[in-house]
Amino acid sequence: MEYNxxxxxxxxxxHWNDAKAYSVSNTSxxxxxxxxxxxxxxxxxxxHVGHPLGYIASDIYSRYxxxxxxxxxHPMGYDAFGLxxxxxxxxxxVHPAVSTDQNIRNFRNQLDKIGFCYDWxxxxxTSDPSYHKWTQWIFLQLFNSYFHPTLKKATPIAAxxxxxxxxxxxxxxxxxxxxxxxxxxxxxxxxxxxQQEILMEFRLAFCGYGEVNWCEALGTVLANDEVVNxxxxxxxxxxxxxxxxxxxxxxxxxADRLLNDLDKLEWSEAxxxxxxxxxxxxxxxxxxxxxxxxxxxxxxxxxxGQGREAATxxxxxxANExxxxxxxxxxGQGRxxxAQEKLAAPRYFTSTAEQWKYLEQFAKTNRKNQTEAEAxxxxxxxxxxxxxxxxxxxxxxxGFIPDFTCLEQKLIIEIDGDYHEEIDQKKYDEARSAWLRxxxxxxxxxxxxxxxxxxKSVVEKIKLTLASLQGVNAGKSPSPLERGWGEVxxxxxxxxxxxxxxxxxxxxxxxxALVSSITTASQQAEVDSYITYVKSRSERERQAEKxxxxxxxxxxxxxxxDGREIPIWISEYVLAGYGTGAIMAVxxxxxxxxxxxxxxxxxxxxxLGDAFNGTEPNPTKDAILHNSGFLNGMVLRDAIDVxxxxxxxxxxxxxxxxFRMRDAAFSRQRYWGEPFPIVWKNGIAYPLPExxxxxxxxxxxxxxxxxxxxxxxxNIPEWVNQYTSKSPSLSERGWGEVEGGQLETNTMPGYxxxxxxxxxxxxxxxxxxxxxxxxxxxxxxxxxxxxxxEHAVGHLLYSRMWTKALHDLGHLSFDEPFRRLLNQGMITGxxxxxxxxxLINTSVTSEADIxxxxxxxxxxxxxxxxxxxxxxxxxxxxxxxxxxxxxxxxNATFLVSKIHVDVNLVDGVELDIEAxxxxxxxxxxxxxxxxxxxxxxxGVETEKMSKSKFNTVNPDDLVxxxxxxxxxxxxxxxxxxEQSKPWDTKGIEGVHRFLKKLWRLFFDExxxxxxxxxxxxxxxxxxxxxxxxxxxxxxxxxxxxTAVSAFMVCVNDLADVKCHKSAILExxxxxxxxxxxxxxxxxxxxxxxxxxxxxxxxxxxxxxxVVESAKDYPVSINGKVRTNITIGLDVEQAGVETxxxxxxxxxxxxxxxxxxxIVFVKNRMINIVL
RNA sequence: GCCCAGAUGGCGGAAUUGGUAGACGCAGCAGACUCAAAAUCUGCCGUUCGCAAGGAUGUGCAGGUUCGAUUCCUGUUCUGGGCACCA
Length: 1170
Hints:
The protein is an alpha+beta fold. Helices cover about 35% and strands about 15% of the residues. A hairpin with a 2-residue loop joins β30 and β31. It binds one RNA strand through α10, β15, β19, α22 and β34.
């Protein structure tokens, strides 16, 4: 009987399927074990040999755990939403659902052939409505939650609303820069829109404006981890920064927990490192520096803190005399006069002289050109008409000109025209609001429409607001001078407050809000042109060429400790999005700052003494501080805390932790993804009620994007407007608020469905919940997760966040999804090349392509064979191909093209010429070959496996040729699972020979049945038990390659002793079952068993069978092994010494000398030291 | 630039805690069986000197610790991966 793997494998695959052999129950008395693969995106290309590596490893481990008595969950599914299917739809007009289904069928077909033990009844597809219903449901949980600042966990948003109603923003004060503090009473009069806007700042899934990675070619936004080197991960298209309305996940709130909980996980250090870097926690301080523009008339004097105080005093005559900065000639006189005049008028002066000068003209113009709505309001509020409060119109406040201002109550009224909806204007408005809020102003906003259509309620609202502010601002002076408003402060973030005396300049991002207000007249042109330059540069250019660029604003900041003036620069190396968008530059300690200072000739202060040599910066924390005022003599490391404490005392700085990680962009302008269960009405996002889920995708004809960066769904009004009216009436069902609203037209990104799929496997058919609590409690965390490293910062981080949020909200009892993570290495392809030679500069007589064998080509390239040499060889092949004389005269050369050739046409390195000629529909049918030793040898290079490089190997072919068992074992035998290694089909025959050899222990080709029931000998038992131990250990530590080799050793040994005893062979089959399940099953049944081998108990290792009574000790002299001596294991040091010293070989090497020492390690070795 | 991982025969790799470096497999060489091939079996297989016995040398490179180092330490080169103006 021969080993007929095809027949055996088909037979058992069918049997397992029919018997539901791998069906798993959610109730069991056995302990549970959950083994998970990263589910595949079903691409059209199908599987290549690299894909199943991880699946085989997890399959072996699952089967092993089942043999060891565990109830093992080992499911598989498909990450079925995604961009490629949609791209394919655009190009070929096939609906993504159709092509995805087709691809899945193809994948399944390929997977089935390898003989995996998946419980296919638990299959999930993220694009199934019954699945994405729960993706949408989880989204709603995130939408309806916020991160509680002290509990540090997701909490229903209702709790936040309750706290706002009860005590205003007290609890969350200072947590969200975008939201100004408010009282409970204020909250109540805000109105729904304003309330919802505030709540949106807290929701874990939220919608907002932000700079996003926009990919024009893909027509969508991408998350940070989907952008690589300024181009899209998929397709490599350019990506630009664009401000758009987008959905986000507030993953930054979880940054600390995501970082700290890494400790709980059994992941590789490299993986943890990657997540740690991505989260990018840094500990430092924010420091406020006072800024003075070079023309400022404010007397900013030396000495700490005095500047602030000085500004709060009413300015006396001669204030300008104390100004440390001489005003420029000419214009100076007039300005000083103006400044003095304004400064002397305290009550309503709300801008610096500099600002006033610029704004005055605008204000005057604005007053003359009021809009209709503004005119109406002005009539209502002027002359203290409302409860005696004085309003001013177009009154400059700091750098802004609000429409109407009541300084007494610090209330500002804005009437917005349509242009306020534009993005840039919005940003500007936000910056202004932020500043005003910080300075205790309240704001009321009305649209033109509101004023024109319902003046009454507008006035009523103004009255109410003024009343509610009564007392709020009591004791707070509206006077700018008493508050020191004339000052501008620059907030910087630094991790090195200890170096504050070494600050030689400040750098702020070109986009920084302060740039326009601090730039001096003389520097304006330079700053403007620099900003133009920065805007002209794409993200890619910015990353590619890191030139030192920048511009001086003309303004200076003041060092709070020594009063030094520090010039403020702008430069693109400072990022607006990180920290405060401003840094204090310490060139003696920081590489970039040092280069910048050198480039722009900014003098460098040395605070490091000898530790700074003037030619390169030293970032040390261990030097002694010099030139650092009260810090002199202190070690930098220790000074950090001292400085921050001092800053805090002075009220101009505080400790601050920053994260590099940003909130995750969560919307895509695409069709093939989960629709958001959100209805927009009057600019408010209403969640769809759970009863409406799943919200499914409409059928569409076109996948082209909608208007204004919206997705294709925006083109389908029937779908978008399906909630304008619905029967039975929406209000009857208790959610009338969405009536008349429009559905969100973005869809969710690919990582939405994959962030929780491991939970659905636990209870895949549940229609009441994403999974029952009973199921998630039972299966709990994934015990072993196997997949590639490419998901290190995407999927793995999002899954962790979703799990934590679901845990916080009481839906899960665990807060980390994957307890143990194993990263399989990439299988690289081994590409083969042929070398095509084309003569240029001379005529040839044949059109045939000429291919030169690798070895000859090398000699040509190294100059060992001249051009004429090759031409001569071609002429031998094709008579009169070219004229050698003309060739020489014209100095003709060959154009050599290195062409990828399909690895499947190459045996090792030798090209199958006939197959090559038929390749690609006979493209090279007429090719001619210059051979070496009668063969055409191909060039070899290791590259990533990909279709375009023709280096993919299809597992189907190998399974057909060698069987699934051989294929599985060979993939494992290639090397350590975590290491990346090149694929080489050639070695598979060795593994196949091993299985055939195993087969021959049971069956003889001629005689048939070989096994017997004889008692095993001690030697045979030793072989068996050594193998049990080795397989068990190796499987436990995922050392599958060495386990395969142990099987080979075992079978070789058994064959050597001609062992055909079932008492030995049967346990070996159980050991082998996880690795080669089909052959193990077949032989197991051949031995007479009727149950499945997978249900057999794992053999128990018994040490007594492997104990030795003696050891063949290596004996070294001075560390060099000279001989081996067999000595009983019970012999101790003294006995060993006697035996060794009497040995002839040892005596020879001792040359009569006495050994200094004899090192004896029992069961290891003996070393004689001379 | 920063961080991490790695470097062992012609090739993939093994050596689990410092204890005989090269298990197992591929490729190669020699032989057996065969008319022949396939399949199977046996032997050899790091480099080098030597007829041999045996010796020298050898885990990227240079040092160190140790009776003993592929393994630990310091420095260095190269390869792969991650991050990349994150203050």
